Amino acid sequence: MGDPYLSDGVDLGDVLLAAGKAVFAFTVLLVAVMLMVWFERKVVSRLQNRIGPNIAGPFGLFQTLADGIKLFFKEDVIPTKADRFVFQLAPYLSLIPAFLTFTIVPLAGDFSPGGSEGRVVIFGRETFMQVADVPVGILLFLAMSSLAVYGVMLAGWASGSKYPLLGSVRASAQAISYEAALGLSLASVLLLSGSLSTNAIVQVQAGEGFLGVVPNWNVIVSGFVPFIVFLIAGTAELNRPPFDFVEAEQEIVGGYHTEYSSIRFSLFFLAEFMNVVTLSAIMVTLFFGGPAGPAFGLLPGWVWGFIWFFSKLIVFLFLFVWFRAALPRLRYDQLMDLGWKVLIPLSLVWLLILAGIRLAQPDENGVSLLQVSDNPTINTAYFLGAALSVFALGALLLMVASKNARDDRLKSMGLKAVAIESAEVN
Amino acid sequence: MEVTETWYLVLSAVLFSIGLIGLLVRRNPLVMFMCVELMLNAVNISFVAFSGAFNDIAGQSAVFFVLVVAAAEVVVGLSLVVMLMRYRASATIDDLSVLKG
Amino acid sequence: MGVVHNVAEDGFEGLQHNFVTAPLEKLVNWSRARSSWPATFGLACCAIEMMATGGSHYDLARFGMEVFRASPRQADVMIVAGRVSQKMAPVLRQIYDQMMEPKWVISMGVCASSGGMFNNYAIVQGVDQIVPVDVYAPGCPPGPETLLHAITTLHTQIENGELLRRREETGAGANITVEQLDGQGQSQMVELGSRT
Amino acid sequence: MGYLGGFPVTLKKWFEGVNTKNYRGGKGGKSDVKAPKPERLHGRHVLNKYEDGMEKCIGCELCAGVCPANCIYVRGAENSPQDPVSPGERYGFVYEINYLRCIHCDLCVEACPTQAITESKLFEFSFTNRDDAIYTKDELLVDDEGKPKQLPWEDWRDGEDEHTSGWMRATAPGGDASYEGKVGWSGELGYGVREPEIGQSVDLKASLRAKQSRISQDQSSQEETPHG
Amino acid sequence: MSLQTPEKQSPNTQQIENALTQQLDLLPRRDAVLRMSEVRAAEVADQPVSDDDDQTMMMNMGPAHPSTHGVLRLMLELDGETVVRSKPVVGYLHTGMEKTAETLTYLQGPTNVTRMDYASPLFNELVFSLAVEDLIGIEIPPRAVWIRMMMTELNRIASHLLFMATNGMDLGAVSMMIYGWREREQVLRFFQKVTGLRMNHNYIRPGGVAADLPDGWEQDVIDLLDMLPPRLEEYDILMTGQPIWRDRLQGVGVLTQAEAQALSTTGPLLRSTGISWDLRKDMPYLAYDDVDFDVIVGSYGDSFDRYAIRLNEIRESMRIVRQCVEKMPVGDYKAQDKKVTPPPRTRIDESMEALIHHFKIFTEGYKVPEGETYIGIESPRGELGCYIVSDGSAKPYRMHIRGPSFVNLQVMPHMMANGLIADAVVVISSVDPVLGEVDR
Amino acid sequence: MVDASVFIVSAAIIILGALGVILSKNPVRAALSLVASFFGVAVLFVLQEAHFLSLVQVVVYGGAIVVLFLFVIMLLGVDKAENLRIEPLVGQRYAGVLAGVGFCAIICAGLFLSGPGGEDGAVALTGTPTQEQARIIDATTPDINQLATDLFGRNVLAFEATALLLTIATVGAVVLVKNQKKPVPASVAAHSAADSENSSENTELDAENEVDE
Amino acid sequence: MTAETEAAEMQPAETQREDLQRYGVPYAAHGEQKVIFPHRDMWLQTAVALLQDGWNMCLDVTAVDYLDKKHPALPSDIPAERFEVVATFISYERKERLRARIQVPEADPTIGSLYTIYPGSDYLEREVYDMFGINFEGHPDLSRILMPENWQGHPLRKDYAVGSIPVQFKNSRQDSPKEGA
Q1: pTM of the shown model
Q2: Strand E73-79 and strand E82-89: pairing?
Q3: Which chain C residues are closer than 8 Å to G148 by Cβ?
Q4: Which of E3, E8, E390, E391 to mutate to test the interface with G (most CBs of G within 10 A)?
Q5: Mind telling me how many Å the CA of B87 is from chain E's nearest CA?
Q6: Within-domain flag for C1
Q7: pLDDT tens, E127-170?
Q8: What ipTM was estimated for this complex?
Q9: Residue ranges per domain, chain F?
Q10: Identity of the residue in D70, D103, D126 whose CB atom sits nearest the CB atom of C149
Q11: What value does the CA radius of gyration of chain F take, rounded to a whole number of Å?
Q12: Structural domain includes residue G178
C-alpha cells in the first residue's frame, strides 16, 4: 500500500523527489491546460468550418500565452460593493483543488503484464509516476471536486451584484445534485477494483481482458453505465457545455466571474480548463486503464505508459470540445431533473446490480459470499435477477411518481394546459 | 514533543465551548446551526482521539455515525429555516416564537 | 464604479524604459494585439455584420477574437457597431467605464463614427463625443473585410504601443480635435472625445 | 438517438474543410486573400478622367444634392480657357467625400451625368483619424493611367482597380429593357469603353429562348435531386 | 370625395363595458406586464434585494446584454429565477427615421427605410416603394414585380437564417450560430452581386428596382437553392430532432390565439397559435397570386412552433424563389414613367430633354400627388406597414412604418410570465425582434 | 516534532475558524470560517491515521453541509450582516460567554485533575476498555476495511438505523418545504403556482446526498 | 393621379357603403383603402362597434401633425384640427383593412385610449404620446417609449427641428480660384 519510496523512513532525497514530482506534475498540467485552450478553440473552429486562431505563433499555438500575458497586465478592479476579502480569495479556492486532484493521477509507468506494476526508479528510489499515491485517492478526488465549488460560489456572492449571485446559486445547487451521481458511479469502479488507490485501480485494469483483444478496462467490465453517468455528471461538475449554466452568457452574462477582470479572471479561466484536464485524466484512470497499455519495446516501458495516457486523455479532451460544438444548453431545472431523476437512480441501481454479481461470483476459494445455489452460474443469475427486479420496481415507481408530479404541476399551472388544449382544437 | 490524547481532548473542549457560546449568543438561526456543527466536530475530534488512544476502531465508527446524524439534522433544520425565512427575510431565532400555540 | 487603478500611473507603462522593461513591453504589446477580446456591444445593422465576421467565412477567431465577452470587465476592445442614440449614449459610456485599462474602441460604421445619414435629433453625431475612438471603419454597414481591416489596423497600433502613448499625451482617443467646417461658412468646434 | 445526432453533423464539418478566406488586412503575406468581389460592389469612390487626361467632373453638384447623407461637398469653378481642367465650362474645384458619413448607396453614381464619380471595388479601409476619412479631390482622382490612388490606410490588391464602374453600368439602362446592352457612357481612362453589363441580354427573344432551355435543364436536374 | 353621414347608432355604454371585460379577459396574464417607470425601476434595481415581504428582486437585462438582440432592455421582476413580471424597454436605438424621412425625397427614401429592419432590408424598401407607387398610381412592369418577389423571398430566407443563428446562440448551440451565418453569407453574396451591397441595399425603389439582375443570376440562385436543403436537414438533426432542444423550446412562451389577436401580433407569432394569416396568401401583393406555396401554421403557440414555422418558411420561400426563376418575365424592370424614372444614360447624351429630366429627378426628386395611404406586406416578422401622407411635394409629409417587431414586443411579458430566466431568453429569441425596426 | 507542528497549525486553524463562525456578522463569512475549521479537523484526522474519515469529513461537511448552508443563504438572500448590538434578553450574551468558558474550564479541569495529568489524563477520565470489547486497530490493513468490518459487523443495526433516519429526514424536509404557498404579489398569485417546486427540490438534494456515503 | 380620377375612384361601391355606414360616422373609400372619420368623442364607441363587427386586430396607431397644411382627402364637413390620429384595423374574414382618422385639436390633445378594446394598441399609443404629445385617456401606462424619460419636446411634431449638424469637410472654406485670383 502506498508509494514504495515512502515505505521506510523519510530522508532529504525523498522530500526532494516528492517536490520534484509535484513541480513536474504542475508543469505538465499547466502545459496541458495551455494546449487545451488552444486545442478547444482550434477544434471548435474546425467543427464549424473555420480556421481558428492562427496568428499568435505557428498555428496559433501561443494563443493561450497571449491571453495569459494580456490578462496579467490588465488593470484590476475590485467593485466597491464587493466583499473584498472573499472576492480576492475565491479564484484561489477554485484553482487549488483543480491542481490537488491532479496529484493522484498516475501519469506514466509500465503496467503491462510482466512489467513493473507502474514502478519506476528515479534517483535510485523506486516510486510511482504520480505525485502521491494516497490510499484513499478517489475520495480525495471527490473531496476536491466538492471543494472546487466554493471558488465559484463565493466569487459570485462576493461580487455584490445580481448576475454573479444567480450564477453562484446555480453553482451550489448544481454541485449538490451532481456530487451524488459522481460518487455513486465511482462506487461501481471501487467495487470492481476493491481499492481507493488510483495506482491499484490502474493495476486492476492492466491485465488481459476478454479474448485477449478487448482490454480489461473498467468501462467495459462495469458495463458502460457508470462511465456514462460519470461523464455526464463530470461535465456538469466542470460547468462545461451543455451544462454551463453557471456562466451562461446568454442568460446571466458571465455568471460568477462577471465582475472579475485581469489576473483573477485568468485564474478562473485556468481553473476551469485545469478541471477539464484533471477530470479527463481521472476518467482515463478510472475507466480506461490510465497509463496501462502494451509496451512495444524501443522506449522504456514507462514512456509507453505516458504515451498511452496522453493519447487517451486527448480523446476525452476532444470529447468535451465536441460536446460544446454539438449540443445546445439545457435549462437549469432540466439539469436538476436529469441529475435527480435519471442519473442518481440509474447509478444506484447499477451499483446494486454490480454488487449482486460480485457477491454471487465465487472468490478464489470457489466460495461466493452469498450462496443460493451450488452452481455459480445459477447463483449469479439469482442475484442478477434480484437486482434487476429491484431495478424494474424502482423504475416503475419513479415513472409513476414523476408522471403524478407532472400531472399535479400541469393542474396547478392550469393556464398552459388550457392553452395547449385550445391550440389542439384548432 | 509528542502529541498525546490530552492535546486533542483540550482542543475538543475548547472547540465545543466556542460552539456553545455561539449557540447561546447568536440569534441568526443559520449561524446557530453552524455552531451546532462546531460542537459535533469537537465531539468527533475526541472520538478519533480515543480511537487512537485505545487502538480501537469503534471510535472511528462513532464519528461516521455522527456525520450521518449531522447531515440529517442539517437537512431538517435548514428546511425549517427556509420556511421561516420565506416569510421574513431578516428572521432571527426569536421569530420562531410565533410557533408557540 | 469600482476602484479604478490608473494603469498609466500604477502599471508598468509608467516605468522608465530600460533593458528589462523594453522587451517586456514588446511582449505585452504582442500579447495584447493577439488577444484583444471584444465586448459584445452590438447596436444595429453593423452588429449583424460584426457577428457575420465571427462566422465561418471571415472568422474573427484567427485573431484570437472570437471570445466575445459579455462582461465589460474582461473585454479589451469595444466595437461600437451601429448608431448610438441619445438614450443609449450614457449606457455606452458606462460600459466603457466598466472596461479595464488598457482598452480600445473601434467605431464601426458611419452611424457610430459620425451619425451617418441620420443627421438628426436622435442620434449622437459621432461616438467619439462620448468615448475616445481609436479606429474608424467606414461603410454602412462596413463589410466583414472592412471590419477585419479596422481590426488589423488596431492590432498594428496596439503592437506598436503607439495608441497608449498617444492617448497619454493627448488625453483623448485618436488624436482628434477637428475644427468642423461646413459649406455655409459657419464654423464650430466639435469636441471629440476627451478622457474624463 | 436524437441526442447524439449533432455529433456526426459537426464532425462532418471537419472533413468539409474551412470556408474561411484568410484575410488579414494586408499583413498576412501570401496567404492573405480577399473574398472575390462582384462587379457591382459599392466601394470607395473614384473621380474619373477622360482619356485625354481631362477630368470628367463638371462641378454640377448633382451628386452632392442627391446624397441622402450629405457627405459630398462639391464646388464648381469656371475653367480657365488656357488650362482647362474639364471639357465643359466648369469643373469641380473642391470635391470631398466624408467617408464617416458615406453610406455607399451610390445614388451619386447614378446621378452623375458625366460618369465622373464611380465606385471602385475597394472596401477594405479604415482610419485612425477623422481627418483621413475626409477624402479630398486629390485622393479621389485617378492617376494618369486611370488607376485610383492607393492611400496608406487602404488595402489594395492587384486587379482591384478594374471594374470601377459596375454599378453605373448596371443602372445605365434606367430600367428600360430596350436600352440594355447599349453603351451609354464615355470611355474610362485606362480601360476605354467597357462592354455593357448584360442583364436580361440585348436580344430579348434570344435570351428568352436561352432562359427557357436553361430552366428545363434545371427542372430535370431538380427532379433528380428533390429538395426538402 | 364622397361623404356620407348616416344617423348615429352608437353602441351604448353597456355594450362598451361588455367589450372591455371581454377583451381584457383574453389576456389572463396581463398582470405580468410590469408598469413601472424606467427611472423608478433603475432605482429599485440598484438595491441588491428588495426588503419587501414579497421577496422579489428587480433585475435589469440589457440594453447591452448578449441575448437581447441588440439593445432591447428588459426589466424583470424575479422571484428566485422565476420571472414574475417584466417590461421591455425600447428606444435605445431610436434613430428618428420617421423624421428623417420627411427631409428626404421619395428618391432618397429607400436609403432611409432600408436601415430599419436591418435583417430584412429589402422588405422595408418594398413597402415604402409600394406605398409611394400607390400614391402616384403607377403600374410597375412585371419583371420588376418578379424581381422584387424573388429578392424579398431570398431576403426572407436570409432573415430566417439569421433567426436560426441567433436562436441557436441564445440556447447555447454555438455551432448552429456559425452554420446560420455561413448559409446567410451565401445569400448575402448573391445580394452583393445584384445590388452591390450586402445589407441596406437601396435596390427596390418606387417604380421598380434599381438595376436588372446580373447575367448568370439564374445559376447563382439555383446554386443557392441547391445548397440549402441539405443544410436545412443538418439543422433538423442539430436542433429539431435534438431532445434537449425540444425540451428547451416546447411549452415555453406559450401564446394563446386570443392573446395573439388581442395584442395585435402578426407573422410567425400569430401563425404559431394556429391562425393561418399570411398577407402573401390572404391579401396578395406583388405576384403572390401566381406562385404556389403553403402557409406554415403552428398549433401550440410555443417557441418550438415559432422555430419550426421559420425553419419551414425557409423551405416555402425556396419554393417561391424557384418559381420566380422559372417564371421570370423579360422586359422593363422599372416603370418607364418619366416622372419617377431617370432616363437611360444613352438618352442623356442624345437629347437635351432627357438631360434636363435627369437633372430634375436627381435634384428636386419627383412630386407625389396629395393623399395618404397605408400598405402592408408580410415581412419575416409579420405585417410591415407603411403609412405615407403626401402634401403634393417631392418629400413625404409624414411617413410612418408599422414595425411588426415593435408591436410583437408587447407579448413578451405575457409569454415570459412564470418562466425562468433561461425561458425569458428563449422567448426574446423566438419573438425575434429587430431593434432597428422597433425603435426606428 | 512534525506531528506537533501539524497539530498546532491545524488546531490554530480550527480555533480561529470557530471564532470566526461566532464572531462574524455576515453569515457567508461565518460559513467560510466553518469550512476552515472543518478542514483543520480533517487534517487532525489524517494525523491520527484516519484517512477515510478525514476525506469523508471534507466531502460531507465541506462539500455538502456548508454548501447547503451557503445555498440557503444565497437563495434566501439573507446575507445581510446581523446587528450584533441588539440583545433580546439583557445579559444573555454575558451569561452565554460565561457558561461557555465555565464549561471549558470544568472539562479541562477534569482532564488534568482526575488523573495524573499529561499522558494518562484521558484514560483516567474514561477508564480502559476491556480486552474483548476492543477492536484493535490492525496497522497492516487499511482503515477503510477495518471501518467497514466494524460498521457492517457489530454496528450493522445502528447503520441501518441511520439509513432510516436519513430517509425520514429527507421525507421530512420535502414535506416541510413542499406546497408552501409563497406570498407572491397578489396580482400574480392567481397564475403562479408552479414556482415553489424549485426550492423544494433543492432542499431534498442534500438528504439524498448523504445516502451514498 | 389627377383630381378627376381620384374623385371617380372615391365613389364607393354599394357594398362598401353598407359596410361602412353601420358605424354611424363619415367615411370614404378609395381603391382598396377604406377610411372612416369618427369624431373624437365617439371614438371609443366606434372602436367597440368595429371590434364587434369583426375587425380583429388593431394593426397600427399613429398620428400626423398638420401644422399648417391642408389635410389630404378629408371630408369637407369635418373640421380640420392640427393633429390627426390614424388607426388601422384588419379583419381576417373580409381580408381588408380599415383606417380611422380622428381629428385631435392642438389645444386639447387628448383622445380615448384603445387599450381596453384592442390591448395591442398599448405600445403604439405610447409611441404616439412620445412623438406627438397626444394623451390617451385610460391608457394604463402612458409614458415615453422611444425617447429618454426626461426628454423635452415631441420630435415628430412639425415645429420640432430635425436637429442636424453640419457635415465636416476639409476645404469647404477655401476660396475658389476665381475669387482668389
Answers
A1: 0.85
A2: antiparallel
A3: 86-87
A4: E3
A5: 7
A6: no
A7: 999 999 988 888 888 888 999 999 999 999 999 999 988 888 88
A8: 0.83
A9: 1-86, 155-213
A10: D126
A11: 23
A12: no
